[in-house]
Amino acid sequence: MERVRVAFRVQVHTELLDEYRAVHSPVRREMLEAIAASGRHNYSLFLDETDGTLFGYYEVDDDEVAQSSLAASDTATQWEAEMARFFVALDGRADQAARHLPEVFNMTDQLESS
Description:
By secondary structure, this protein is an alpha+beta fold. It has a single domain, classed as Alpha-Beta Plaits (2-Layer Sandwich), CATH 3.30.70. The chain contains six helices and four strands. Strand 2 and strand 3 form a beta hairpin. The mean pLDDT is 94.
């Protein structure tokens, strides 16, 4: 099965950017393990410090399974509750409610298909 690439974005309150970076450097080991156990791989976050836009990317075999795993994880539930105050106008947990972005270009896919 080919892994699916998932990109998402959320907005971080600009006045909390330093604190947001601090809690991610490093992320608690038990949270990293919960993410890995969910099936997410190659997970990265990128932060635009000018406006607080947070862009995330990960690869996964089955995103619905990964979402369900994190939703059922006590560790992820606690983490997301602690993180909620950082996000602007997010309806629900960031790991469940972040706006997914459609992929419009992938160089490898195009090279392999031509």
